[in-house]
Write a structure and sequence with these properties.
The chain is mainly alpha-helical. The longest helix is centred in the C-terminal third of the chain and has 31 residues. Helix content is about 75%, strand content about 0%.
Length: about 350
């Protein structure tokens, strides 16, 4: 078993709290989410940060062959994504909520689906030992063409995490200057983040208009995408380097970091608890917006985090619930154990 990195497990705990905080800001008031400054701040980097952390560990999966890799990642990511989407759709149905159930089942828990695709793209590129750089560029282009599951923003973040790991010594040597540069970049760019950066611009429409002689939509698409990638990359680089530099392996840090290992379970279970149930029965429109933003929403997020961590530990006790909610396959039921035996030796 590989040794866990306390700093990154602790960072995952902080990041999943920010996910819950952002969802509480989004779902518990009627105000347009993009009008809430804290929501814009959190969403400018929280999912790219998670994707970069995943990319940081991506190289460890290269030892598997493609079949075993897809089976493992499928069990870890797609099973919870699909099962969770079906369950939350059922909850919405019972609550008679006005949702698109087909879209929810196809795209629900989008981050897990996006992470699966990012992992596969990186695996394909990294396996091409002679032309890795060329294949990385090819997969990056593919991610920009495919407009679904936020791939245009997520895959660059995944590659950023993989780069920080690959050139870890260089990043350590230049940690201070990089932290200063990325912090300044983020502070300079963030005030420009507006509601227009959250508007969906269909890639197909932009390309079609371009070939019809109108390049305005494509230029807008590329400008928004480039800005979001740069903004998320600046914040992600700063936060990753800061946690890795300043986190010490104290008893308190190690104790807190253990909860960071349950982030996938928290992400899945919060969909039921926060996005479905609490969303239907709790509304903070009666509060001043600042109270909702800085008091009510973080308190709800903290409560949901504690509850879903507890539920994650309960789910871990049973092999079925561990699989569908945590993406964990116990050793006695691991469908890839025997076939992986040979690949682990290479």
């Amino acid at each position: 078993m590989s040794k866990r990195i306390v700093a990154l497990d602790l960072l995952k705990l902080v990041a999943i709290f920010l996910v819950l905080y952002g969802h509480a800001l989004q779902h518990l008031v009627s105000v347009d989410k993009t009008d809430i400054g804290m929501f814009r701040f959190i969403t400018s980097f929280h999912m790219p940060l998670f994707m970069a952390i995943s990319g940081y560990f991506a190289a460890s999966s290269i030892r598997f062959n493609f079949k075993n890799f897809v089976l493992r990642k499928g069990c870890q990511l797609l099973v919870p994504a699909i099962a969770g989407s079906i369950i939350v759709s059922g909850i919405y149905y019972l609550l008679d909520a006005d949702v698109n159930h087909k879209e929810l089942i196809i795209y629900g828990l989008w981050f897990l689906r996006s992470l699966f695709i990012c992992s596969v793209l990186f695996f394909i590129a990294a396996k091409r030992t002679k032309y890795v750089a060329v294949w990385l560029v090819i997969t990056l282009i593919i991610s920009q063409i495919v407009p679904y599951l936020h791939l245009p923003w997520m895959y660059p973040a995944f590659l950023l995490g993989a780069a920080i790991k690959h050139w870890s010594e260089w990043f350590k040597r230049h940690c201070t200057i990089l932290m200063i540069a990325t912090a300044i970049s983020f502070v300079w760019m963030f005030p420009e983040l507006e509601a227009k950066h959250y508007q969906v611009i269909k890639t197909s429409d932009a390309v079609l208009k371009f070939f019809n002689g109108d390049s305005s939509m494509l230029c807008q698409l590329l400008a928004v995408r480039g800005f979001r990638i740069a903004l998320g990359s600046a914040a992600t680089t700063f936060i990753l380097l800061a946690f890795m530099r300043f986190t010490h392996n104290t008893a308190a840090a190690k104790w807190m970091s253990q909860f960071g290992t349950y982030t996938l379970g928290v992400y899945v279970l919060q969909t039921f608890v926060l996005e479905a149930v609490i969303h239907q029965f709790v509304n903070f429109d009666c509060l001043p917006l600042w109270v909702h933003t800085y008091v009510a929403a973080p308190l709800v997020a903290a409560g949901v985090l504690i509850l879903t961590l507890w539920l994650s530990k309960l789910c871990e006790r049973n092999k079925f619930t561990a699989l569908i909610f945590l993406g964990k396959v116990r050793a006695d039921t691991d469908i890839t154990t025997r076939s992986n035996a040979r690949s682990l030796d290479h």
